[in-house]
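Example: Probable outer membrane protein.
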Amino acid sequence: MSLTPAEDDVPEQAAVWPVFGDLMACLFGLFVLFFVWAISFQVDLARDLAAERATRATERARLEALESALAGPLAEGRITLTEGRIGIRGSILFELNSAELQPAGIALLRALADPLKAYLEHHDELIMVSGFTDDRPLTSSSRGYADNWELSAQRALTVTRALAAAGVPDTSLFAAGFGERHPVAPNDTSENRAKNRRVEISPIPRRGAP
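Written out as structure tokens, the predicted fold is:
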């Protein structure tokens, strides 16, 4: 007796179900893997955001502590404080093309010494003293300095030594000269050049020190 077409299709239909089951198992497995990855990604993202918030809070507290320590000189307008960098106009500290401190500069650095020392007592950091000049080449009255780079380095070293003499631990101080590099204003007017002739005092983490 011959089989009907419907009877011929039964084994083929039965063989489809295991394949379909395997496909669904694979899809379910992929879904589980994707779900686990998504959860892990969210956990890592939350951890990174928490760490970033903690870092920002620490930095904000550091800057607030520094601003509080320097409240006097800031209120008097003798210094500026920008993103943790203490700025001092070169004209307050030195005569043009000179690395010898003027009396007003000596008095200012002595006034800064105690706040900086108090700040260092609560923060494991270094004090970086940076010297900067404008872009004009040195003249014959430059007192033996080869170029702006050398002049800026000597000025930074002079300020560093003055702070150490005023009581800031010398183990927490170092000097760097940048010459006319990194200006804060275009060197196109006398006023702007005066802004670029400056010394900056910057607390930095010890692990980031050169």
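Residues 5-69 form the longest helix (65 residues).
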